[in-house]
Amino acid sequence: MLPRMARLNFHEKASLERVLGMGSGYVLDFSNNTFAEFVQDAVGLNPYCGKYDRNGTSKANLLRTIWKDEPDHTVGKLLEHLMTHEHRLVVSGRTDYVRERVSDTDRAECWAVITRLRKAAEIDSLPSMTLGNSLESFRLVKQEVETAISENKPEIGIDRLHTFITQYLRLLIQKRSGADVPNSDKPLHSLLGEYIKLAQSAGLIKTEITIRILKASISILEALNPIRNDLSLAHPNPSIIPKDEAQLAFTSIIGLVRFLNSIEERSDADWEALWA
Predict the structure, then answer these.
(1) Closest by alpha carbon to 22, among 54, 59, 66?
(2) Which ranges in the chain are annotated with CATH 1.20.120?
(3) pLDDT, tens digit, for every residue of 86-123?
(4) If I label 48, which of 166, 206, 249, 254 is the partner at 20 to 30 A Cα–Cα?
């Protein structure tokens, strides 16, 4: 299941295009280089990577395709940065990029769109990661978790989150130990405990507070097991976890994934620097 495209209707897109000066293929005052740098800084995407050029390679066409392909939270964040940049241009008297008349109503509608899209992003997105990208099953379950985030339905995706963090920890343990991890040998919280020991042995964790936080996360993952079995769509349960409680679980576990991903990337960078 792919993440749902951002929800923009015809009138919203028309207002955005007028305010961002997209009528002739441009976007505000950006050159190709500054546009690429701006989008990368704002949301971590490269508009010129080839993924977004199926409808043309002008800056406006690339932006339109990003709107179509990326989920609410990504598009909302990018639009917020673009509208902030547009405001700075107006304040400085730079309006030469505008080829259509822009009204205050247009700008108000753009900011309303941003508010709506960003509100759907109450859970932070998963980090970009290279580990596991070669495994189709891992990519698919990661996409399903991202769909639950972009659609703001953590209660629907809680069982997919369980599957994702289980697969992710197995991959980390395999990377650190060099041995395959049996599919059903250890429960989720035990996998985290094993990885913590491997990370400590490898010198990835530097402080006692980090050790304590990670060990506290073991009990969080242990509590996720009965949620998946009794309060998720993994089985025909009569009820599911309340949305706000599912959101808290998502936020906590994604925070854990972000940290584990960051220390692994830091380790990879240190290793590459050693042999540079």
Answers:
(1) 59
(2) 136-274
(3) 999 988 888 776 666 788 899 999 999 998 887 665 56
(4) 254
Please give the Cα distance from 96 to 29 (Å, whole number).
Answer: 8
Distances (CA, A) of 229 to 58, 222, 223, 238: 49, 12, 11, 12
Residue 3's CB is within 10 A of a number of other CB atoms, namely: 21
Place of tokens 């109503």: 105
Q: How far apart are CA 78 and CA 27, in angstroms?
A: 13
Helix axes 243-274, 208-230, angle to 10 degrees: 140
Give the Cα separation of 23 and 60 in Å (integer).
8
Q: Give the domain 136-274 fold.
A: Four Helix Bundle (Hemerythrin (Met), subunit A) (1.20.120)
As a whole number of angstroms, the longest Cα–Cα distance in the chain is 65
Question: Which residue in 246, 45, 253, 229 sits closest to 167, CA to CA?
Answer: 253
Q: Go through the chain and tell me how many residues it has.
A: 276
User: What is the model's pTM?
Assistant: 0.59
What is the tens place of the pLDDT at every residue in 185-238? 789 999 999 999 999 999 999 899 999 999 999 999 999 999 999 999 999 999
pLDDT tens track for 177-196: 987 766 667 899 999 999 99
Categorize the per-residue pLDDT at 151 as very low, low, confident or very high, splitting at 50, 70 and 90. Answer: confident
- Cα Rg of the chain (Å, integer): 22
Token pair, residue 151, equals 């659609």
Q: How far apart are CA 8 and CA 112, in angstroms?
A: 11
